[in-house]
Specification:
This is HAD hydrolase-like protein. The protein is of the alpha/beta class. About 45% of the residues lie in helices and about 10% in strands. It folds into 2 domains: about 5-15 and about 90-230, 3-Layer(aba) Sandwich (Rossmann fold), CATH 3.40.50.1000; about 20-85.
Length: about 240
Amino acid sequence: MTIACLDLAGTTVADGDIVETAFAEAIAALGIASGTASHERAMSRVRESRGGSKAEIFRSLFEEPRALAANLAFEQSYDQLVDRHGLRPVPGADRAIERIRDAGVRVCLLTGFARSTQARILDTLGWWDRADLTLCPEDVARGRPWPDLVLTAALRLGADDVRHVAVCGDTANDMRTGRRSGASIVAGVLTGAHDRGRLLAAGATHVLPSVAALPDLILAGAPAPLDDAVTADHG
């Protein structure tokens, strides 16, 4: 492996319920009251689409002016929740990133958040020096589940073969992005939005308890893809 593309919230950054709460508050801000059937339908769509561009998720729910308003409300809510509760890495994430980079593998931190929210996360954690590259949906024509983020990382970081790229995330959309890009390791982790079954169904080559297990997988030069029965045993 020469490049590792790691997701933020739910993968390297402990999510808790901050992201879901921000979505719920953003939807309520548009007049869809919490506790109603309409609000629950919208939140079901959000949960299904986790990992994708936040702006695109809102576009799937509302027409453009309301989608823009909802996205702004989401960013404001997320900032306020971070102010109140703070952020912390997933246990072992700092060391995992350090081990990967010490082995000469370049790290790209990917997200479905807007650039301003991504910057807030990196500022809060002091993580600007943890990555060789950071990318968000504003850097590409298409966000997840399309392969553009991973392929852009491969181009900018000088990969000579997409099979030398590893992708790690906590959602089905992370897995689809990795598989569509041609990455040979597409590792799902169980610290975020989606469970083992959904990660495997979306194309995970491995399922890990957390990103802390990723360096051993990368540094072992694991082949991919393995069959579901074998990948399930990794977690």
